[in-house]
Each structure stands twice: as C-alpha cells, then as structure tokens.
Amino acid sequence: MVFFRRIVRYVAYGLLFLIGLAIVMTAVVSAQDAPQPKLKLENLEILTKTGIRVFQIEFAQTEDQRRVGLMHRQEVPDGEGMLFDFARPQPVAMWMKNTIVSLDMIFIRADGTIANIAKNTTPFSQDTIYSEGYVKGVLEVVAGTADKYGIAPGDKVSHRIFGTR
Fold first, then answer.
1. What would the pLDDT profile of 88-140 be if each residue is shown by its tens digit?
2. Residue 127: which domain range?
3. CATH number, domain containing residue 113
4. What is the pTM (predicted TM-score) of this model?
5. How many domains does the chain have?
6. What angle do CA 91, 94, 98 make, to 5 degrees?
7. Could you give the C-alpha distances from 83 to 10, 15, 20, 37, 41, in angstroms and in order?
8. Residues 11 and 78 in one domain
C-alpha cells in the first residue's frame, strides 16, 4: 500500500510539473506574438551619391531586442527603421519570420560602409538572408527605401556604433 501511495504521489508531482511547464511555454509563445515596445529613437545618416539621408532609427542592442526586431509591426514609416548592433564584426543571418511588412535589410561593416542590401524581403518568410562578409550592424527600413534614396553598397553610414557621430 505504501508503494502504491508513493507512485500516485510521484505521478501527481509529474502532472503538476507538466502543467506548470505548459503554462510557462504558453506565456513565452504569447510574448513572442506581440511587437516589442518601440525603442528610443535616434539619428542615423547615410551618405549616398546624391546626398545625405537622415533616418530616425530604433536601436536594437540586446539579444532580446534583436530577436524580436520589427516582428508583428503593422507598419514601418518612411524615414524610420531599426538598427541591429551585433557588437563585433561577424557573418550575420536574418529572416522575416512573423514580420508583416516587407523590408530592405542594409548590412553594414564595422567602418560604416554598406556591404550589401537585401531589397524587398518577403513577409513571414523563414528563408535566411545573409550578409556578404563580416558586418557589425543591420539597418532594417521599409521596402523600397534603398531604391527611393539611391542607397547602395559602398555608401557610408554614420552612427556611434561605427565610430562616427
């Protein structure tokens, strides 16, 4: 009889553990289904062949901020975007999972030079979008921005993470 009670108790503890785990996992999944609060805006400039373009950007510098990025945002206004700071130069891979708005992704080397641009990315796609070589940051802006303002590889970005401004 004592053996039977122990088994019942262990089964009950196991069920309580699984219920608690399910509640935690539901909370984590629900948190991922919401956009992150808008981050503090700051200026970023891009020197193109046609002049200087100024953007108001949110600065994603923590792992959580980079993980969520612009997911679930209903819009990204023209002239705004999000700069992802990877702290040190490295190959970077991005995707559009849970991202509603098509974006241009501008991959930026540590010296502020634009390495490559992924234009008009596909919303909700889980396809991987790669930097061409080592980059320190990625600027995400609404799709069409690079063409609209003549932003191209080789242009220079001014922001404090690139040692400028």
1. 999 999 999 999 999 999 999 999 999 999 999 999 999 999 999 999 999 99
2. 41-162
3. 2.60.120.1140
4. 0.78
5. 2
6. 165
7. 50, 44, 37, 15, 10
8. no
